[in-house]
Amino acid sequence: MPIDATQPYDDANVFARILRGELPCTRIYEDEHVLAFHDINPQAPTHILVIPKGRYVSWDDFSARATDAEIAGFVRAVGHVAREQGLVAPGYRLLTNVGQHGHQEVPHLHVHLFGGRPLGTMLAS
Ligand code: 5GP
Predict the structure, then answer these.
(1) Which pLDDT band holds residue 106 (cuts at 50, 70, 90)?
(2) Measured by CB atoms within 10 angstroms of the end CB, which terminus of the chain is less buried, N or C?
(3) Catalytic residue among 80, 103, 108, 110
(4) 36 is in which domain, residue-wise?
(5) 43 CA closest ligand 1 atom index
C-alpha cells in the first residue's frame, strides 16, 4: 500500500530497521550520511536503493528539512555508487517515489538506482 507522504516519521519502517542493524541488507556503500544496498526485489539487473541515515519520510521531507551537508552528501553518494557500479557509460535511471500517486511504499526516503539493461521509456502506461 502506498504511504501518505505527509505522515510523521515511523521508526518501525523497514529501512529504519536496516539502518539500526535489526534487519540484514546487502550493503554496497556507506558513509556518514548515506547507506546504499541492493533492493530485495530487483526490477533490473542492477537495482540499488540509496537512503539517507536521517529520519526523512520522503523526498519532500528531505528537501524541506535536511541540512545542506546531508543533501550534498546524499547527492554525491548516489553519483559515487553509480560510478562504482560501472553504470555511467551504459547509462542508468534514478527514481524516487513520493506518496500515494508516486506509489511510495516504504516511508523512509530512498532513491532507486536502476541499470544493467536498456530501461525503456520513462513511465509504464
Ligand atoms: P517504493 O515503492 O517505496 O519506492 O520502493 C520500496 C522498495 O523497497 C521496493 O523496491 C522493495 O522491493 C524494497 N524493499 C522493501 N523491503 C525491503 C527490505 O527489507 N530490504 C530491501 N533490501 N529492500 C526492500
Answers:
(1) very high
(2) C
(3) 110
(4) 14-115
(5) 10
Mutate to test the pocket of ligand 1, among 1, 3, 7, 14 (most ligand atoms within 8 A of CB): 14
pLDDT mean across residues, the chain:
97
Residue in 10, 25, 41, 100 to alter for ligand 1 test, most ligand atoms within 8 A of Cβ: 41
Indicate which CATH number applies to the domain containing 59: 3.30.428.10
Sign of CA dihedral 2, 42, 119, 94: positive
> How far from 87 is each of 113, 114, 116, CA to CA, in Å?
10, 9, 7
Indicate whether 4 belongs to any domain. no
Q: How many domains does the chain have?
A: 1
Assess whether pLDDT exceeds 90 at residue 82: yes
Maximum distance among all Cα pairs of the chain, rounded to whole angstroms: 39
The number of helix segments (H) and strand segments (E) in the chain equals: 4, 5
pLDDT band with cut points at 50, 70 and 90 for residue 125: low
Residue 38 lies in a domain: yes
